Amino acid sequence: MKKSFYILATLLVAMQMISCLKDSETTGSPECAITLFSVADIPCKRIVTVNGVDSTIKVSMSGKEIYFNIDQLNRKIYNVDSLPYWVTITKVVPTVTCQGNVYIRGNDEPFHAFNNGKDSIDFTQKIQFMVVAYDGVSRKIYDADIRLASNDADSLYWTAEEQTAPMIGKHHDVIHDDILYVFHEVNGQAYVTSTAVDDKERSWTTPQALTGAKGTIDYASVLYFDGYFYALDNNNILYRSLAENKALTWEQASNRLLTKLLAADDNYLYGCDDDAIWASSDMNEWIMSGSENLGLVPEQYGSYAYYTTKTNPNFQNVVMMGWNANLNKDAVVWYKLSSSNPDDDQEWEYIHVNNDNNYEMPKLRDLQMVYYNGELMAFGGEKEGETSTSTAYNAIYTSNDNGITWHKQSKKLGLPKELLGYAGQVTATVANGKIWLVRDDGKVWSGIINKKSKRSEN
């Protein structure tokens, strides 16, 4: 009985104290300032389309990736970067760090006690926190705001193209002269269809077979270099097709046999065999461009990107990425510095993943990488070892250090919502200032960074 009476008395004193709290604040004690504000992971739901059927999946916005600024002068707390528009902010659990007792209210209602780190708060309301110093006199009131981005705010804005590519299944994309070429197979034979990406009334060519090779052209090996499309056939012979021929007719390009075509930049085409990675500018003379870690080159065919260095226009960064069975959970990433001057040109180097690098690129199915808006962007299907498609195409990873570290973007960059959880293949290329995505059912999206976007602030 005495214990119950004590608890009741304590509650009455606390309620009386809360009822005396007024909106006016005093700043006699600096200890009542909020010094840190964070939130727990935010559970959300998203509608995804898998094989044409809409379903709801549970996702989570990591609280560790949300950074809050505390404006002590104006008493405002807000997240530095707007959260994706789909994040639900009706049940957010915040943690407030300060010296004093914390109280909360929504929509100008009376302040009441706040259970720090446990109470779930609806941030669609006007939320204010009051901190009362332990002296019971000094207090400060903060406006707390969680900002959501609009659908296209500071992010990739995607447009679904009306015309679909006339192909179904595994495919490979190559851009040349603002024409998007999609290579694929029909009954074991390589085919190509194409469309002009700068044409508002876009139409696709009828798929046609690739002819001229003694063997079968590997559609997934095709790349463009210096006026020609290049590809390997099933006998490891290198073929080429003059760009003016729209990749339809092919001829043998070199006597060197290669097991894989890897990449190309403005200076060289790169391929490998069991002994080394080789580079050539004319397909006659081949220069060794790396001989270590050959067991970690991308299996089958990965993605690559090249771009001029920021410090010297005579050099290009070249990065290639892919899937390799010898690594359990990370993608393989390679880098080289390319120069037309052989004395300055460097060999390919495998970027080792070690314990010091906590920002590796995960091993995703059907990995794709492009260089866009001044950085490398990569994405893919579900992670290695996972059976749930909820992780497929759920994020874009970016790198600003030539593929050494990769950061999962969950705020401003994302893929079309129709791809979230998709079980098939999606390819990516860059042309005409946009990223172009082609899904294995022929559906196409174009994406562009919206520079004039607005923020929706609650």
Q: How would you sum up this structure, described in words?
A:
This protein is mainly β and about 450 residues long. The protein folds into 2 domains: about 1-150, Immunoglobulin-like (Sandwich); about 155-455, 6 Propeller (Neuraminidase), CATH 2.120.10. It is built from 1 helix and 36 strands. The chain has a 6-stranded mixed β-sheet with strand order 4-5-10-9-7-8, covered by helices on one side. A 4-stranded antiparallel β-sheet has the order 12-35-34-33, with no helix packed on it. A hairpin with a 2-residue loop joins β17 and β18.
Short description:
This protein has 458 residues and is mostly beta strands. It has one helix at residues 2-19; strands at 34-39, 42-50, 53-61, 68-71, 76-79, 94-98, 101-106, 112-113, 127-132, 139-145, 148-149, 156-160, 171-176, 179-186, 189-196, 208-209, 223-225, 228-232, 237-242, 251-257, 260-264, 269-272, 277-280, 287-288, 303-308, 316-322, 332-338, 349-350, 368-372, 375-379, 396-399, 407-409, 426-431, 434-439, 444-449, 455-456. It folds into two domains: 2-148, Immunoglobulin-like, CATH 2.60.40.2340; 156-456, Kelch-type beta propeller (Neuraminidase, 6 Propeller), CATH 2.120.10.
Topology:
Elements: H1 2-19, E1 34-39, E2 42-50, E3 53-61, E4 68-71, E5 76-79, E6 94-98, E7 101-106, E8 112-113, E9 127-132, E10 139-145, E11 148-149, E12 156-160, E13 171-176, E14 179-186, E15 189-196, E16 208-209, E17 223-225, E18 228-232, E19 237-242, E20 251-257, E21 260-264, E22 269-272, E23 277-280, E24 287-288, E25 303-308, E26 316-322, E27 332-338, E28 349-350, E29 368-372, E30 375-379, E31 396-399, E32 407-409, E33 426-431, E34 434-439, E35 444-449, E36 455-456
Parallel strand pairs: 5-10
Antiparallel strand pairs: 1-6, 2-3, 4-5, 7-8, 7-9, 9-10, 11-36, 12-35, 13-14, 14-15, 15-16, 17-18, 18-19, 19-20, 21-22, 22-23, 23-24, 25-26, 26-27, 27-28, 29-30, 30-31, 31-32, 33-34, 34-35
